[in-house]
Every structure is written in C-alpha cells, then in structure tokens.
Amino acid sequence: MAKRKKRRIRYEFKPDVQGKNLLQKLHLTQFQQQKLLKWSLYSLLILALLIVQDVIMSQLHFMGAVTDLVVSGILLISVMEDSENGSLFALLSSAFYVFSGSAPGPYAIGYLTVFAMAAAIFRQLYWRRGFTSNVLCAAIAVVVYELAVFGTGIFLGLTYWGRIGVFLVTALFGCVTLLILYPLVRAIGKIGGEIWSE
Question: pLDDT tens for residues 28-61?
C-alpha cells in the first residue's frame, strides 16, 4: 500500500516547464513602446540637463546668479503633458533632482510637484495648447518656484533680503531656458501621437 502511494506521488509530480523568463514573456504593443520611448527620452533629457548644470553652468555666474536648467526642464515637460502624467513626472524627476545633491533642499520636491501640477491644470483649463500658453505657464511656475526657494531661504536663515535680485535673475535665466528647450520637448512629446486633444 505504501509503495503504491509513493509511486502515485512520484508519477503525479511534474516539474515546471522550462520556458521563457519574465522579460521574454513581456510583450509591448507598438503604442506602449512609443510611450516608453517618450518617457525614457524625457528622463534622459532631465539627466542631461542635470549634468550640464552641475559640470558647466555651475561654474558660470551671471550677476551673482546661476542657471537652474533642471527646474525649467521639469516644469516645461509637466505643463506640456496632461496634468496627471505631468504631475507624476514632476514628482519622480524632482525626487531624482534632490537625491542628486543639486537641489537647494528636500522642499524642492514639494515645490516642483505642486507648481508643475498647478501650472498644467491652469493651462489645461484656461488656454489652448500652443507655444505661447505652454511657455508662459511654465515661466510663471519657474518664477514662483524661485521666489518660493528664496522665501524658504529667508525663513531658514540661509539668505537675506538683499539677494532677491539674484533669485529673480535666476528665474529670468530659467525663462530663457524654456524657449531653448521648447522645440526639443515638443519633438519628444509627439512620439506616440498627440498628448491630449482640446
């Protein structure tokens, strides 16, 4: 009797079929591949801006101010995408920005996410999508971000009121950066079709 049970158990056991692993089983449609490509290119753009900012632009001072390329890139991409995707991108990329050590402080995550979301929602509700509306909303978000960083610096005792001009010049450089980045961000945004219709 015991021999029959052992035989039965032995014969009932079947090893797992050796086949494709998870990555081999993963199948993406052409639309999903294009979306993945688009968001990967956006991420690489932010990484490239971070490298240029840290390696080159941080050495150059204009009237006591430096550029803030990463902030301009994050806010422009967030405004040009729909508010849900743009806000999530702003949250993730601002966290990467803070952990890279280039951000003024951890509060930059909250500021960038909230201002990107507010600018995207405002643009989506009140203006048709176009060059002027995208750049103007992103520029307003850049200026508000720089003023918020200045206000935080005042509150924490890291700066003084006489340096507000430096922060405004940094915001001006950020707005000029938006004009330079717009064609590239627009070209990447067209991958996979239009972002959303109005």
Answer: 777 878 888 899 999 999 999 999 988 887 777 7
The count of residues in the chain is: 198
Contacts of 39 (CB under 8 A, 6+ apart): 89
Distances 122 to 25, 27, 102, 146 between C-alpha atoms, Å: 42, 37, 28, 19
Instruction: Give all domains of the chain, ordered by start, each with its CATH number.
Output: 42-189 (1.10.1760)
The residue behind tokens 């995207």 is 120
Largest CA distance in the chain: 94
Contacts of 86 (CB under 8 A, 6+ apart): 77, 78, 79, 80, 116, 117, 120
CA distance 193 to 187: 11
